[in-house]
Each structure stands twice: as C-alpha cells, then as structure tokens.
Specification:
heterotrimer, A mainly alpha (about 325), B mainly alpha (about 325), C alpha/beta (about 325), A: about 325 residues, mainly alpha, B: about 325 residues, MetI-like fold, 2 domains, 4 strands, binds adenosine-5'-diphosphate, binds iron/sulfur cluster, binds magnesium ion, transmembrane (chain A)
Chain lengths: ~325, ~325, ~325
C-alpha cells in the first residue's frame, strides 16, 4: 500500500514519486483530503484569529470589555430590546445587570481560554512525553515509578484538589489581605491543568516508545555510540509525533471545558480576567429570563470544543492511516 | 496470578498512603490556620484555642499524621467535644457538621452511588450502541449522526445540559419533580424521578468517549487476524461479531469505564451541584468552602479509594474478558 | 593475511537470557578469531544464536561470560565511555531493511548519523561524505533527501550498508544482510558487500542461515548449532571435507553440492531442541545420524585433527584422518 513498485528484477526505483515525501508530509496530504478536518480546521483558525486580534476587534467595534451600558437596561437590569438586546451596535446583546457588551467579552474570553488551554496543553504534553518516553525506553524501576505516578495522579480527585488548592496557594503567596493579581490565578489554573493532565500523553508515548525501542534503527544508533539524549530526541521523538500531536489536540478542548467546570464551582478565573467559563456560569441564572445570554457564550464554547474534537479525530486518522477507514 | 494480585494490591496501598500524605501536607502544612476557617467570623479566642488543642494542632505534623492513620486502622479517642471514642475507620470529627466524619460519609455516599451506577449503565449502553452503529457502517450517515451526537455531548459543559433539562422538564413542562434524593428503599419511583435528569446528563456527557473508543476498537479488531480467521472458518457474521470482535473490542471499554466509574463515585461535583443533590461531591465542595479539614481529608481519601479499587478490578476484568491478554 | 594479531578474538563467549522457565543459553561458549581484512562466515539454523553473537560482537549486548578482544583490547565489559573510541571501527548491518532505518529520517540523515554521533567531520564535510558513500554502495546521491519508505528493499539495505561504512570501520558484522530481500536482489547485495570488503580491506563477519550465501563470500566458515560452534575452518575444507554431521547436513541442502555428493547426503530430521534445556553430551545428538552412546555422556570439544585449520566438535567425525 505504500506505493512502492517492486518488479522483482534488480532494484527498482519506486515509480511516480517526487523526492523527499516524509511520513509527516504524507499525513499532511491525507489531512488535506479530509473534508471534516478542513472544515473544523477552518473554524479553529477563525477562533484563533479572533483571539489573537482581540484588541484590533475592540478598536474596530468601538466597545471595550469593561464598558457598561446601563441606559440600555430596564428597571430590573434586563437588557431592552429582543434577544437580550441584540442590535447593530451590540452584536450579541448585553449582559443583564452590569450591561456589558457580550460580543466583545466573548472575544476576550476566547483569548483567555485559548491562552490557558494551549499553555496548559503544551506543558502537560511536554511532561507526559518526557515521562512516557523515559519510562518506555529505560523501563525497569523508572517505568514502575512513572506508572505509579500515573495511578497517583488519577487517584487524586481533580476538582476537589483544585478547589482546595487554589485559595490555599493564593494565601501562601499573597497573605490574607494582599490583592492577588489576575495573572496569578491564570498561572495557578495552568499549573493545575498541567499537573493533572499529563497522564494520557505519558501512556500513549510510553506505548509507542516500547514498540520502537526494539527496532533495529535504535540498535544501529547505539552501535554507533549514541547516548541517551540522541536516542530519545533524534531517533525516538520523531516517531512519536503522532501520539503527541493527537493528545495535544484532545488536551486543549479538555482544558477549555475544564476551565468552565472550575468556574462553576467558583475557582476558575476571577474578575476582571474575562473568562468563558465564568460567563457561561453566570448566564445560567438568566436561563429563563434572558436565554440569549446563555446561548451566545454557550454556543461559542460548544462550537470551539466540537471543532477541536472533530479535528483531533481527523488528525489521528491522518497520522495513523490504519485507523482511517 | 497470585503474585500479580499481590503486587497490584501493594501498589494500591502505597498510592492511597501517598494520597493521604499529600492531602495532609497540602492542607496542614500550608500557612493557613485550619481552625480559623472552621469557625464563623466572630468566634471567641478561647473556643478557637480549645479546638486547636483537640485537633492536636500543637503537636508535630508527623505525630498528627500518625494519629490520623492510627485512627483509620484502629480507631482513637478524640476527646469530649468531638464525640469521644471514634471507632475503627475513624476519619475524625467535623466541627462544621458537628458529627463524626464517617457519619456524614454514610449519609452522602448512597446519593452519589445512586447517581453514578444507573448513569454508568446508561452511558455504557448508549456509548457502545452508538459506537457499534457507526462501526458497522463506517462513513455512512448513521456513523456521522452517531459520532456527531456523542461529540456534542462531550462539547457541552454538563451544567449547561443540566440547566436546560431542568428548565424544560421541571420548570416548563413540569413532567418531573425538582431533583431531590429519596432513598431507593423508601420509594423507588421517587428515587428515580428525582435522579433521572442527573442520569441523563451524565450519560450524554460520557457516552461520547465510549462511542468513539468502541468504534475505533471494533474497527481495529474487525481487521485483525483472528477475526479474519474466524470468518475464513466459515462462521457467520453474527457469530464473528458477537463472539470474537465484540469480546475483544469491549476490553478497553471496560478499562475506561471502570476508571470513570471509580472517579465518578469519588464525587460527581458538577452534577450534584447542578441538581442540588447532597452527595459526596457536594460534601467535598462544602468542606473545602468551610475549611472543614477532617472532611476534606476524608472526601479526597474516599475518592482515591474508589479510583484505586476500580483500577484493581479493571485489571482483573480485563484479563477475564480479552482472550489475548495474559497477566504480566 | 597470515601473520599478525587477530583484529577480533573471542574466547568462551556466552550469553544467557534469564527468561520465564529458566536460563536461555542463546550463546554458550564460542571461540574464534578474525584477522584484519579476513572474512568469517557464521552459519546455522534460525535460533542457534547468530544474531545474539552479532550483537555481542559489537557490544549491543553485554556477554554473560567470556572475552571479546577488539584490536588487542578487552571490550567484553567495557562501558559506553570506554567503547566510544572503538565504535567507529566496528559496525553492524542488520537483517531487516525496514526496521533498521528510522522512518522519519532521510537517507542522508541516516548515513550521516554515525559521523554526527561520533563528532567526526570528514575533510569535505558531511554532505560530501554522504554522497560519496551513496555512490559507493550504488545509490543515486541525488536521493539523499528521500525517506526509507521511498526506497525498495534492496535500496534500503544499501542505505544500511552505507551507514555502516560511514566511519570507515575495520570490522563489519553483517547479520543476515540479504535474507529479507527478494532472491534476485540478494545476489546484487552480496556482490556489493564482496566488492566493498575487497576494496576497503574490511574484516567481515557474515552471518547467514544459508550456507550458499556464506560459501562464495567467506574465506573461513564457522558452523553454529544451539549456541555453540560445531565446526570451523577454511572454506574449502568445510565445503569439500566436512567432518561434522551437522555441517554435512547443511551442505546437503545446498543444491549444487547436493548434486555432486549424492552418496554422503544427510537429511536433517526432528526439531531443534530448546536452548532452555539443551541435550546432554553433544547437543546435536538428538538429530545426528551417527550418534552413539558416548555422545549422550560426553560433550565433544572443538579440536583440530589433521594439524590443519579445521576444527570439529564431534566424537565420530566423518572422514577424519581418511
Ligand atoms: N533478548 C532476548 N531475551 C530472551 N531470549 C532471547 C533474546 N534474544 C534472543 N533470544 C533467544 O536466543 C536464541 C537465539 O536467538 P538468535 O540469536 O536471534 O538466533 P538466530 O539469529 O540464530 O536466529 C533464541 O532461542 C531466541 O529466542
Ligand atoms: S558427537 Fe556424536 S552426536 Fe554429536 S555430532 Fe558427533 S556423532 Fe553426532
Ligand atoms: Mg537472527
């Protein structure tokens, strides 16, 4: 199936090939032929662009995330007009109560969400790849320790520990009365995700490395005198991109919803950091009175996570053609 | 087999021990006066001091921990204000709830179990069903619809699903009562009626994982040698699917399910909060909010016990189900 | 090529793998030497310990016992640091041309790897050296940015050969270098190896389960059975006057020899015993047509008989002193 022509006479030059198609390039070509992958990737790119260009969008839109429009609320603090105050001026309407613009808050919330989720995913994937790779290659006691660490991590109830740890850490670093800067909250959130999120990457990478380490190209490098660094980084790592990329692409949406879940129990990001999760959580109070307020952030979140999951599936299929059917 | 079991059991005990040390360290060693959190704002200094004394907070940390462990294994005497003698799995006394921690646990655990067990059955059936539908006709509209449905479940935060369900079925249509917990033994119908929305939300959320996992596994095993051999031997499709492929494909699903159920039994925090059900997850959140240390320790530990036990069980089941697995 | 210290000297080399069910004696006491520029063929059925021997010689494995001397230096227990300066001088070619090349590296990267690992900078630079090597093994140097999956099996094996030659080794161990290839390609690769061996003056240990491959290539041949050498000697002696029943059996399987020597034909029957529990006395006795009582009691030593170069481990060698 690899397109190599074997005629059985002499050493045939494989037919009809351009030079230097790496396995990565081939996966890329498979991905490009996949319609689901294309659509979900386009959606993701759009989200990323919006997140990156948030200040530009603010400038063009003319409304900031903290601007309040109390005049457009009625006596009960509910937005005037239909669908939660949707108008040419306020694309997605206004928040009940404070009267802030939902659209621009979503744009900034997206930015925070992406930043937190992507940073945490990079960290957790790095930890997982390093631990899984070492455990898989060296085996023995190190492998036992890593698999025990995995069990330990999985045994700690994530939400409860996060709930308990977040204020405790703030107290540790800032004392009872100090103002805790927003960046600290973001940092703690990322750290918690990274510490709890590495296990699945580690498991995947470990499995891949175990399958690879007995291959003769690893032996060839050892026979040439290669050290552990070369073996892991130059020989094995290039062959573990598939599980690493796939687990990264699943970690990001997991952390996006994770932030939303933490907001729900009150340990997500706090004001004034714009946050998707907190916005959705706050909107739930208005489920009956102002459903549009639930719909816009909720719909955006679902679209984002859905696109990520679809893309992750497509990526896995493209990287592992055996699973694509 | 026995050696394998022994090794796993030893690892499990070590994991639990470490969880307890970590929890203990996290909450006792950090610079937060555990007592001030336990007592409302204007609480007199004498009472605070007495509580400190009774909790043994003046002792060295190692002693405190040793006492705690001793309480779990052999029980201990907590002193008059804490209800005196505390029997064998003694997890301490909660000043907030004013009762022994084990009593609180005995009250909240049945709620969580009542949520998780039927929900797990639901998500397994739904997930495996959807996965099978899409694996039998990969690429078809059935496949897409099943995967799309399950992916939606994975993409919506549970509390949003819960809120919408509540709005529709409880507040608008009034088909269901406001969710509440009634013990199964008291009134099975009210038990189910009060929990059904929680079951549905959880099943919707989790089925996605299972549908995708089962689909991938089934496709993989269908292309494996032993399935092809079975076909070549002339077994009918039903036999091939039923006897060989399903059996092999279900093994990883069992692994994941075991771990998920284990984790969920440790407290379905979001579900319980959304539907206002007084389970272990809610108790944990309340304990953290109130700074109720013995209760925090207990909930974390109980959650860890569930995960570890599930892990052990899964290993055994796995060996029993998958014809290819040998114990290593 | 007669005088001088041997480049490789192996004494009592053993490798036992602890496995479930006991000790697996994969290699169980080998003695042989290879001089500079000399070719030694190692033949034996699958599972007799050839690959394990190959991996021991280039110290991918640590021996359980015995000694390996390379260029006068004992390397049997040497660590990575001590082996470092010797690595460029001894290289290995693997059997499987698919598994032995990193699928994510280009041919150029693969061939350059030993140079980079050993921080060797050739006079004209690494790229020029890679092109030179590719030409040497009969590959188009323009294909240096192709990936392994874009080559045919034979071409891949050539890439593996070029990699082994990159550092200019004095000893090359080739473990079944052609047995995974199409028959038509096998001859080409064998011829390439032979040409390279002559042009570069390499010492060669060529491992094969097929006596026919080794016979045309090697000056000396060692026959292995269940982790031991049962007969070793010059090619002509081994092929014309095989003394060990096992060697005779192997020769009978080679088509043109079989035709010539119909009378002395030996057929192998039965299964190879497990290296977990080798037979007492002579390990070949369970399949040997000339086995007698003594064979079950006493293990035959590998000894020379005619004062020649041929040594045989058999109590009742055929044609001895005949
Ligand atoms: N790493 C290992 N662990 C256990 N047994 C091994 C290992 N490598 C090889 N063996 C066993 O050693 C014996 C010789 O193997 P090998 O050297 O590969 O033989 P050959 O190359 O002649 O076919 C075989 O029985 C094989 O199963
Ligand atoms: S020693 Fe005996 S059994 Fe062994 S090869 Fe010679 S004759 Fe056969
Ligand atoms: Mg071999």
């Amino acid at each position: 199936m690899d397109g190599t022509l074997r005629t059985g006479t002499g050493d045939p030059i494989p037919a009809g090939r351009t030079v230097g198609r790496s396995p990565g390039r081939l996966a890329w070509m498979r991905l490009r032929r996949d319609r689901t992958a294309l659509v979900s990737a386009a959606v993701l790119v759009l989200f990323v662009l919006v997140a990156l260009a948030a200040p530009l969008i603010e400038a063009a839109y003319g409304i900031g995330p903290h601007d309040q429009f109390q005049r457009r609320l009625d006596g009960f603090g509910m937005p005037l007009g239909h669908a939660g105050g949707v108008s040419g001026e306020h694309f997605f309407g206004l928040e009940p109560g404070l009267g802030r613009d939902i659209f621009i808050r979503l744009v900034y919330g997206l930015r925070t969400s992406f930043f937190v989720a992507c940073t945490a995913a990079v960290l957790s994937t790095l930890i997982g790849a390093a631990l899984g790779g070492l455990a898989g290659y060296l085996g023995g006691w190190l492998d036992a320790v890593v698999s025990w660490l995995t069990d330990l991590t999985l045994a700690m109830p994530f939400l409860i520990v996060a709930l308990a740890l977040t204020p405790t850490l703030a107290l540790r670093f800032y004392g009872q009365r100090d103002e805790v800067p927003p960046s600290f909250g973001v940092g703690v959130l990322i750290a918690i995700f990274a510490v709890f999120g590495w296990t699945s990457t580690a498991r995947l990478v470990r499995g891949q490395v175990i399958a690879l380490r007995e291959r003769e190209f690893v032996a060839a490098a050892r026979a040439s005198g290669a050290g552990l660094g070369h073996l892991l980084v130059r020989q094995l790592l290039p062959n573990t991109w598939a599980p690493i990329l796939v687990s990264f692409s699943f970690a990001v949406p997991q952390f996006v919803t994770g932030e939303a879940a933490l907001s729900f129990i009150g340990v997500g990001l706090t004001e004034p950091t714009p946050s998707f999760g907190r916005m959705i959580y706050q909107s739930l109070d208005y489920l009956q009175t102002d459903p549009a307020f639930v719909l816009f952030p909720g719909g955006t979140l679902v679209a984002l996570v859905f696109a990520f999951n679809l893309f992750g599936d497509a990526l896995r299929d493209a990287l592992d053609p055996r699973s694509a059917r | 087999m026995l050696r394998f079991l022994l090794k796993r059991a030893l690892g499990a005990v070590l994991t639990l021990f470490t969880v307890s040390v970590l929890t203990f360290g996290m909450f006792f060693a950090l610079p937060r006066d555990p007592v001030s959190g336990m007592c409302p704002k204007n609480c007199d200094p004498q009472r605070l001091e007495r509580v400190r004394q009774e909790l043994g907070l003046r002792d060295p940390l190692v002693d405190q921990y040793a006492n705690y462990l001793k309480g779990i294994v052999a029980g201990r005497d907590l002193g008059g204000a804490q209800g005196g003698r505390c029997d064998a799995p003694c997890l301490g006394w909660s000043y907030v709830n004013n009762e022994a921690v084990t009593d609180t646990l005995a009250r909240v655990l049945p709620v969580t179990v009542s949520i998780v067990v039927p929900a797990a059955i639901g998500w397994l059936l739904l997930g495996v069903g959807l996965g099978m539908v899409s694996a039998l006709r990969p690429g078809s509209w059935w496949d897409r619809a099943a995967i799309g449905f399950s992916l939606t479940g994975a993409s919506v935060p549970l509390y949003v699903v819960g809120a919408v369900l509540l709005l529709v079925f409880v507040y608008t249509l009034r088909w269901l009562p406001v969710p509440a917990y009634t013990p199964l033994a008291t009134d099975p119908l009210r038990w189910a009626g009060g929990l059904v929305l929680a079951w549905c939300s959880l099943a919707f959320l989790y089925s996605a994982i299972y549908a995708r996992l089962f689909r991938a596994q089934l496709l993989e095993t269908l292309s494996e040698d032993f399935v092809r051999t079975a076909r070549a031997k002339g077994l009918s499709n039903t036999r091939v699917y039923g006897k060989h492929a399903l059996r092999a494909a279900i093994a990883p699903v069992v692994t994941v399910a075991g771990l998920d159920v284990g984790a969920a039994l440790g407290g379905t925090v979001i579900t319980e909060t959304t539907f206002g059900l007084p389970g272990l997850g809610r108790a944990a959140v309340d304990a953290v909010r109130a700074g109720d240390l013995p209760m925090i320790m207990a909930t974390v530990l109980v959650a860890a016990v569930f995960v570890v036990l599930a892990n052990l069980l899964v290993d055994l089941l796995y060996a029993a189900i998958d014809p290819r697995v040998r114990l290593g | 090529m007669t005088a001088g210290e041997p480049l490789l000297r192996v004494r009592g080399l053993t490798k036992h793998f602890p496995v479930r069910g006991g000790l697996l004696r994969a290699v169980d006491g080998l003695d042989f030497e290879v001089r500079a520029g000399e070719t030694l063929g190692l033949v034996g059925e699958s599972g007799c310990g050839k690959s394990t021997t190959a991996r021991l010689l280039v110290r991918l494995l640590e021996p359980t016992g015995g000694r390996i001397e390379f260029a006068g230096q004992d390397i049997s227990r040497a660590g990575r640091r001590a082996l470092r300066p010797l690595r460029p001088q001894m290289q290995i070619i693997f059997q499987d041309p698919y598994a032995s090349l990193n699928p994510r590296h280009t041919a150029g990267q693969i061939i350059a790897m030993p140079l980079q690992v050993n921080r060797i900078t050739p006079p004209d630079g690494i790229r020029a050296r890679v092109r030179e090597l590719m030409e040497l093994v009969g590959l188009d140097p323009e294909h240096d940015n192709r990936y392994p999956h874009e080559f045919s099996g034979g071409q891949r094996q050539r890439v593996g050969i070029a990699r082994a030659l990159a550092t200019g080794p004095r000893l090359v161990v080739a473990d079944e270098p052609v047995s995974a290839l199409d028959v038509s390609v096998q001859a080409q690769v064998v011829n390439l190896l032979r040409r390279l061996q002559r042009e570069l003056g390499l010492a060669f240990v060529l491992i094969s389960h097929d006596l026919a491959v080794v016979r045309h290539f090697c000056q000396r041949i060692a026959v292995m059975y269940l982790g031991r050498i049962v007969e070793i000697g010059d090619r002509d002696d081994i092929c014309r006057r095989p003394q060990h029943p096992y060697t005779r059996a192997l020769l009978s399987a080679v088509p043109d020899v079989a035709r010539r020597d119909r009378a002395g034909r030996v057929r192998l029957t039965g299964e190879v015993p497990s290296p977990l529990d080798p037979p007492s006395g002579c390990r070949f006795r369970t399949r040997c047509p000339s086995a007698r009582e003594r064979c079950a009691v006493q293990e035959p030593a590998l000894i020379r008989r005619d004062g020649g170069n041929q040594a045989t481990a058999c109590h009742f060698p055929a044609g001895a002193s005949a």
